[in-house]
Design brief:
alpha/beta, 9 helices
């Protein structure tokens, strides 16, 4: 089965924003731990910044790609993990928390795993995105194979609720960003590239101005309190 959450590097995408934030806040040296690393492209993009990189992933079919992109790769179920490696300089959990029945338990493990000056990088879908709000206005709330209403999501977040969950877990928020609606994945097959880029630019501006409404995903950088 194809990975619907494959790496996406275009204007306003969560992966591009995460790379930018890791470059800015992640420091140099130490170990990067990517929880839910998929094919490992994000880890590969910032690998030169760290002394060592580790990728955890649930899907065993990703293991060959993970092994190529990380110094160490493990296939595991984050719902069953009881300990994480200690002394991590940076931990990434991108599009993971919404799939977990007990997200606070994983955040507690992450808190123990980070170095005192380590950083946490999180992204979650924004259930308060304008597309979902408009759907509700017309009585539409349909689960899908991907996106905000992915049928494997068991938790839903807004900007306010993900911020509260991270702070309640013992972290201090350093930065909050929002990715824009990925129109390239929706209309990219039949839209000229210049028009796509212009649309992505406009959506990026709108998301910066009103993150709670237009952000497709909420991206957060946090440190230990």
């Amino acid at each position: 089965m194809p990975n619907v959450y494959s790496f996406k590097d275009f204007e306003g995408s969560s992966h591009r924003i995460l790379i930018e934030l890791i470059r800015r806040f992640g420091g140099r040296g130490g170990t990067l731990l990517d929880l839910g690393a998929a094919g490992g492209e994000l880890g590969a993009a910032v690998r030169d910044q760290f002394t060592r990189t580790i990728g955890f992933e649930y899907n065993i079919s990703c293991l060959p790609d993970l092994s190529a992109h990380f110094d160490q790769a493990l296939v595991t179920d984050l719902e069953k993990v009881r300990n994480l490696p200690h002394g991590m300089q940076a931990i990434v959990i991108a599009d993971v928390l919404e799939h977990l029945r007990d997200a606070p338990a994983l955040l507690a493990l992450i808190r123990k795993s980070l170095t005192p000056d380590g950083k946490l990088f999180v992204s979650v879908p924004n259930i308060a995105n304008i597309t979902v709000r408009l759907g509700l206005l017309f009585g539409v709330f349909e689960y899908r194979e991907r996106g905000i209403l992915d049928n494997t999501h068991v938790r839903f977040y807004t900007k306010r609720t993900i911020r509260r969950e991270i702070e309640n877990a013992g972290f201090r928020i350093l930065s909050i960003r929002g990715s824009s609606v990925p129109i390239r994945l929706i209309i990219g097959g039949f839209t000229p590239e210049p028009l796509l880029r212009f649309g992505e630019y406009l959506l990026t501006l709108m998301t910066r101005l009103w993150r709670a409404l237009f952000a497709y995903q909420i991206i957060i950088v946090a440190e230990l309190k």
